[in-house]
Amino acid sequence: MKTKVFGVDGKAVREIELSDNVFNVEVSDGSIYHAIRNELANSRQGTASTKTRSEVRGSSAKPWRQKGTGRARSGDRKSPVWVGGGTVFGPKPRDYSYKLPKKVKRLALKSILTIKAKNEALKVVADFTVESGKTKDLIRVLKNLVPDERTVLILKDSDVMVKRAGRNIPWLGFLSFDRLRAHDLFYCKHLVVMETAAVKLNDFYASN
To answer: For the chain, what is the domain count?
Structure first.
């Protein structure tokens, strides 16, 4: 499939061929779901912790005798049925991360790229950089390309100056062509891909 390449002034300058194996595949909703779920699970800290009855502070003495008081029997004040007692089956620190098959991850990314391309939410832009590293210079470029909405910019390499210029823009995120994240791609309103990154995406994902 062919698409236009825009300059930093927002005008189309030429066309580029995008691989149908990357930007025009059969969308797999299941793969997208599993990829996003995997990323969210892997990012969890897993530090939630509650105390059991053996860990809470309190006396182990029996509050009253077993029989003859008319009240329900009770063993100690650390019981889960008491206020301030332990928690039953509460969360403990654990690792939520797990591995997702590479083919599922790749299919999910290609499916999302296809969705963005079909919905005209994907825009290829000629390679540029922000030599000054200033936010206002990057905003000047982005205003010609996309509105001030949640946007992801796929870079051709690790451009430090572009990232420096964009770190103060709350609605802008950066991804590298070889380290895409399904969550960021799926939920962004606009996807801007540098021309070299688009070519690399063709080569990187088309054969898999």
So the answer is: 2
